[in-house]
Every structure is written in C-alpha cells, then in structure tokens.
Design goal:
This protein has about 140 residues and is of the alpha+beta class. The chain contains three helices and six strands. A hairpin with a 4-residue loop joins strand 4 (about 75-80) and strand 5.
Length: about 140
C-alpha cells in the first residue's frame, strides 16, 4: 500500500504535510490556546474542515450526476473543543446555497452530505450539527 502523505516537523509546533501523489503541501500550526502561534490550520482545524470539504465534494458528485447546479455553494465550519481529554467534541457545518432547488434536489444534496466518508469516519461521540440554508439570489 502506498503512503497518502508525508509529514515533517518544522519546529516551533509546526508541521509540513505533503500529499504524495500531487506534492501539494499543507502547513499546520498549534493553536494559540495550546502554546502555538495559530498562524495556520491546526490539526484539529483540518479534521473539522475535512468534514465540510468531504460533504461538499460528495454533494458535487451527486449534483453532477443529476444535473443540479452547485457552483456557488459555500460551507462554514465551526470546531468545538472539549477538555479532559482535549479533543474535538462538536463540528458545526453550515451550507449556504444561492441556487433554487426542488424538494427532491434538496433531499439528494442533503443526503449526500450526511453520508460522506468523513462523516462516517468520525467517532460517534463527535456531535455533527449540519444546517442547509437555501437563500436564492434575487434579480
């Protein structure tokens, strides 16, 4: 099995992760409330962000399959940390859509989001709050 990524410790609580297949890089930094500078995504920020990104990606697959417009869909992710042990306890994901959808299209998109691989991969103790806001643009 080939590696997905390689990570190097840069010092000062920073890492550089490189995606093996594409060579794209991500820098992480410890958050300010955990002795870091907060100058980049923290590892737990990436965990929470991965959920929103995965949901939107799977929605994109379903949208393309069903000729549903999705181009300007946006996601806001909020991570909630707990203590003892320090861990992510909640991830809030809020979708905003500017296109108009039928009830059937909404159901397809929402089901795609809720059944993405990242959602299924998170421990069930991590509360996933997902909201879908449909605010079509007016002319």
């Amino acid at each position: 099995m080939s590696h997905t990524s390689e990570i190097i410790y840069l010092g000062e609580l920073r890492t550089e992760a490189r995606h093996v297949k594409s060579s794209q890089k991500i820098i992480t930094d410890a958050p300010t409330d955990n002795n870091g500078k907060g100058a980049a995504f923290s590892p737990t920020d990436l965990l929470a962000t991965s959920l929103g990104s995965c949901m939107l990606t799977i929605m994109g697959i379903v949208a393309e399959r069903n000729n549903i417009p999705l181009k300007n869909a946006k996601v806001r992710v909020t991570k909630v940390m707990g203590t003892e042990p320090r861990r992510v306890t909640e991830i809030h994901v809020e979708f905003t859509f500017s296109d108009t959808y039928s009830d059937k299209e909404k159901k397809l998109l929402e089901n795609a989001a809720r059944t993405c691989p990242a959602a299924y991969s998170l421990h069930p103790d991590i509360k996933q709050e997902v909201a879908f806001l449909y605010t079509p643009a007016t002319s």
